[in-house]
């Protein structure tokens, strides 16, 4: 991949990225994975760059992963949370971030409950914008770290058979994974209750089934999604117990599918989405996903800042 293969000032989603751009991000993440394995884990790639993590929704894993990635790159990091801020007094998203930008912030990492909020922000501020999850739309860095983890274990993404199980309707992770995987010709099967399956989702080039056993037949990777009960109104599920019986990933599923890679974006509802024995078993790479997330987010921050043209930053391999 030639230098400058990623030329976007913002990362808003995977839908608009090319296969080559995604590969360039993953290759850059591999360089940073080597960096964070060193005794001295810090590099000066974003020295002097001020990054604001702006989270309008609760988050632990994503926010901490971004913060660690930014600090590993020597960025100056500030964190903004909507709770206890002027947002509760009626301040708009645009005004909030413009006030932050007036403090000479160079990059904004945004999580927001409204789909399209990062796109709106990117049109209205000068800073680089990275989408850390927007509504039911996308979670691109989670999709990228999932692709990175699959490639590391399976050696390729082309033609992989991937099942995504659970709450598809409310999952931005599912959408980012679908967009990313389809760029590589992967065969994607969605499985879950009909009430949690978006209408006409097959238009994205995926297969839909409501039987987990059928979805796992000859499957290489299974991504189990969290039930997002906080986003649901009544009527989506008869009961959590029935969902666990029909769609929970158990040891018998793993035994019946050789070489299955088990993934989950976290946090896990143990005993509902999957059994603890599966979550902690040898097929599970859930904690590895967390570790890979730091390298992938380092790569994303590095590449968008490089593409912004604001600084002449070196390639990570030369640091």
TrEMBL record:
Reactions catalysed according to its record: carbamoyl phosphate + L-aspartate = N-carbamoyl-L-aspartate + phosphate + H(+)
Class of enzymatic activity (EC top level): transferase
Binding positions for L-aspartate per the UniProt entry: 89, 172, 226
Molecular function per GO: amino acid binding; aspartate carbamoyltransferase activity
Pathway terms, separated by semicolons: Pyrimidine metabolism; UMP biosynthesis via de novo pathway; (S)-dihydroorotate from bicarbonate: step 2/3
All copies of domain Aspartate/ornithine carbamoyltransferase Asp/Orn-binding, residue ranges: 158-301
Binding site for carbamoyl phosphate: 61-62, 111, 139, 142, 266-267
One Pfam family hit: OTCace_N
GO BP of this protein: 'de novo' pyrimidine nucleobase biosynthetic process; 'de novo' UMP biosynthetic process; amino acid metabolic process
Domain Aspartate/ornithine carbamoyltransferase carbamoyl-P binding: 9-151
Keywords from the UniProt entry: Pyrimidine biosynthesis, Transferase
The protein's Enzyme Commission number: 2.1.3.2
InterPro entries per record: Asp/Orn_carbamoyltranf_P-bd, Asp/Orn_carbamoylTrfase, Asp/Orn_carbamoylTrfase_sf, Asp_carbamoyltransf, Asp_carbamoyltransf_Asp/Orn-bd
Coiled coil feature spans: none
GO cellular component, one term: cytosol
Description of how the protein assembles with itself and partners: Heterododecamer (2C3:3R2) of six catalytic PyrB chains organized as two trimers (C3), and six regulatory PyrI chains organized as three dimers (R2).
Function of the protein: Catalyzes the condensation of carbamoyl phosphate and aspartate to form carbamoyl aspartate and inorganic phosphate, the committed step in the de novo pyrimidine nucleotide biosynthesis pathway.
Family annotation (PANTHER family): ASPARTATE CARBAMOYLTRANSFERASE, ORNITHINE CARBAMOYLTRANSFERASE, MITOCHONDRIAL
Similarity remark: Belongs to the aspartate/ornithine carbamoyltransferase superfamily. ATCase family.
Protein name: Aspartate carbamoyltransferase
Gene expressing this chain: pyrB
């Amino acid at each position: 991949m030639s230098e400058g293969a990623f030329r976007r000032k913002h990362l808003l989603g995977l839908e608009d990225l090319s296969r080559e751009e995604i590969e360039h991000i993953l290759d850059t993440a591999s360089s940073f994975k080597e960096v964070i394995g060193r005794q001295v884990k810090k590099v000066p790639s974003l020295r002097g760059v001020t990054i604001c993590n702006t989270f309008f929704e609760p988050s632990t894993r994503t926010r901490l992963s971004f913060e660690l990635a930014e600090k590993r790159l020597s960025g100056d990091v500030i964190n903004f949370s909507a709770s206890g801020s002027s947002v509760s007094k009626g301040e708009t998203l645009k005004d909030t971030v413009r006030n932050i930008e007036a403090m000479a912030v160079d990059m904004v990492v945004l999580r927001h409950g409204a789909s399209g909020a990062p796109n709106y922000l990117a049109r209205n501020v000068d800073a680089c914008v990275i989408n850390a999850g927007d509504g039911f739309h996308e979670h691109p860095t989670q999709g990228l770290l999932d692709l990175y983890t699959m490639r590391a274990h399976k050696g390729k993404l082309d033609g992989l058979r991937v099942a995504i199980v659970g709450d598809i309707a409310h999952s931005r992770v599912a959408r980012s994974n679908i967009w990313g995987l389809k760029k590589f010709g992967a065969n994607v099967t969605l499985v879950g209750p009909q009430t949690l399956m978006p209408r006409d989702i097959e238009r994205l080039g995926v297969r839909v089934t409501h039987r987990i056993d059928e979805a796992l037949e000859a499957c290489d990777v299974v991504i189990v999604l969290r039930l997002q009960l906080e986003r649901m109104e009544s009527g989506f599920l008869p009961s959590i117990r029935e969902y666990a019986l029909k769609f929970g990933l158990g040891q018998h599923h793993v035994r019946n599918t050789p070489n299955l890679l088990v993934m989950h974006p976290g946090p896990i509802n143990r005993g509902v989405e999957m059994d603890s024995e599966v979550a902690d078993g040898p097929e599970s790479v859930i904690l590895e996903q967390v570790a890979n997330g730091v390298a992938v987010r380092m790569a994303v921050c590095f590449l968008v800042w490089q593409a912004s043209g604001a600084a002449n930053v070196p390639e990570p391999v030369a640091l």
